[in-house]
Write a structure and sequence with these properties.
This protein is α/β, with parallel strands linked by helices. Helices cover 26% and strands 20% of the residues. Helix 7 (166-177) links the parallel strand 5 and strand 6 (183-187).
Length: 294
């Protein structure tokens, strides 16, 4: 529930993150015809696990005085203008937290070919439903009112949401409220609502084995199970991690967030082998999915 310092990841978390994952290859997908939204080189494990992707990025502050419906934040976007427009992602922090608590996600995701807005919420105690509305307001700002240097880079038909804790619960709210979204990624999501049978947006839920704030048995797993099997979905549980795992740079989180966004926002099938068959080992305690993705 909180983005503040309630729990810390156990010491074993760092060791788990350092363990190698089962190698993935993109050979089959790379041989398929290129899609219209493919951006950047063919993916590899090394590329997805690096601190930055293939695109250089710029960023701009978003003043809360210049927007409606959310509390401002920061926008990150690729410098490249030669490959067409990019998909866009809005990300919310957790309860009591600001965007700064998970800000590493901004340049990490943007450098793989996305426009990212990390939001600050109207108040730090906003509940998930409010955070969901704020995520959608932030996407609307990007495609309608952001500076031309940002707006011109965005494909308004390819939008996604993500968030941590109550922000993760908010991303589920946003996905249910706006089924036109292309992807949602709740991180250690917290929400009093347990049934998300109305979600049709491809959703990757990342939970933490030792989360005592939003325990996976009563949050992430229930949320995943309630999303219909007819909707694309996956559940990744981090081995040895606690509720605050998104507050520090996490290779596994970054890798699979990018792979999911690439697969469903960009419809880039080169990333399918990183998701199907299910990744195993190392930092991953458990992975469930609806493979093969269509």
């Amino acid at each position: 529930m909180t983005g503040g310092a309630l729990t810390a990841a156990p010491a074993g978390h760092a060791a788990a993150q350092a363990a190698p994952l089962v190698p993935r290859t993109a050979g089959v997908a790379a041989a398929q015809a290129a899609g219209p939204y493919e951006r950047g080189p063919a993916p590899t494990d090394a590329l997805l696990e690096a601190l930055r992707g293939p695109f250089t990025t710029s960023e701009q502050a978003v003043s809360p005085l210049s927007v409606r419906g959310f509390g401002g934040g920061r926008v990150y976007y690729p410098d490249d203008t030669s490959q067409g427009t990019f998909g866009a992602v809005a990300i919310s922090p957790g309860y009591t937290a600001s965007w700064a608590s998970i800000s590493w996600l901004g340049p990490r995701i943007a450098s793989h070919g996305f426009v990212v807005i990390g939001i600050d919420t109207l108040t730090r105690t906003d509940q998930p439903a409010s955070r969901g509305r704020q995520l959608l307001a932030a996407l609307d700002y990007l495609v309608q009112d952001s500076p031309a240097a940002v707006r011109s880079r965005i494909d308004a038909s390819r939008l996604a949401v993500a968030g941590h804790s109550m922000g993760g619960g908010g991303s589920l709210e946003a996905a249910e409220d706006r089924p036109q979204l292309q992807a949602a990624i709740p991180l250690a999501p917290w929400n009093l609502t347990k049934n998300w049978s109305g979600v049709r947006v491809p959703t990757l839920i990342i939970g933490a084995e030792y989360d005592t704030v939003a325990p996976v048995a009563t949050h992430s797993q229930l949320f995943y199970e309630s999303i219909p099997a007819s909707s694309e979905k996956a559940y990744l549980e981090l081995n040895g991690a606690g509720h605050l795992f998104p507050a520090t740079v996490d290779t596994t989180t970054g890798k699979y967030m990018v792979a999911w966004l690439k697969r469903f926002v960009d419809d880039d099938t080169r990333y399918e082998p990183f998701l199907c068959p299910a990744p195993r080992g190392g930092a991953i305690e458990e992975y469930r999915d609806t493979c093969p993705h269509t």
